[in-house]
Design goal:
Blueprint (H helix, E strand, L loop, with lengths): L1 H21 L4 H23 L1 E6 L2 E6 L2 E6 L3 E8 L13 E6 L3 E5 L4 H11 L4 E4 L2
Parallel strand pairs: 4-7
Antiparallel strand pairs: 1-2, 2-3, 4-5, 5-6
Length: 135
C-alpha cells in the first residue's frame, strides 16, 4: 500500500509540473489541481495508517480510513483465509487476508496482521464458524 501512495503522489506531481510548464499561468486552474494533489495522497495515507480490527463485546469492529462498521460475531458463518475478494466491502490494505461471510449473503474482506491468530480469536467467541484455507 505504501508503494501505491508513493506511485500516485509521484504521478500527480509529475502531471502538475508538466502541466505548469506547458500552459498559461492561470491560478484558477492550478488551485484545484494543487488541492487534489495534496488530498489524494493524504486520503490514501489515512486508509493505510488507520486500518485495524477489534473484537469486543461480541462484535468484529473494523476501521479503514472513512470505512467503519461492525459485525456481530455470532452472525459469522464462514471464514476463508489466504485469499482476496475482488468485489465488495474491503476495509483492508493487503492481499491474502480473510473473507468473512455473515448473515445470509454478506461478505467482507479484511487483512489482519496474523490471519491464523485472528481466526482463532473469532473461534473462541463463535466455535460454529466454518474455516476454509485457500493455500
Amino acid at each position: 500500500m505504501v508503494s501505491v501512495v508513493l506511485t500516485v503522489s509521484t504521478f500527480l506531481t509529475y502531471l502538475l509540473i508538466s502541466g505548469f510548464n506547458n500552459s498559461d499561468k492561470d491560478l484558477s486552474l492550478w488551485l484545484p489541481s494543487i488541492v487534489l494533489i495534496l488530498a489524494i495522497p493524504l486520503f490514501l495515507l489515512w486508509i493505510l495508517l488507520q486500518t485495524y480490527y477489534t473484537l469486543e463485546e461480541g462484535n468484529l469492529k473494523y476501521v479503514s480510513g472513512p470505512i467503519r462498521g461492525s459485525i456481530k460475531i455470532s452472525e459469522i458463518t464462514k471464514v476463508t483465509k489466504n485469499t482476496t475478494l475482488w468485489v465488495g466491502l474491503k476495509p483492508a490494505t493487503a492481499r491474502k487476508g480473510i473473507i468473512i461471510e455473515y448473515d445470509q449473503f454478506n461478505e467482507m474482506y479484511i487483512s489482519p496482521s496474523n490471519n491464523d491468530h485472528f481466526i482463532q480469536k473469532l473461534l473462541e467467541i463463535n466455535p460454529n464458524i466454518e474455516v476454509i484455507d485457500k493455500k
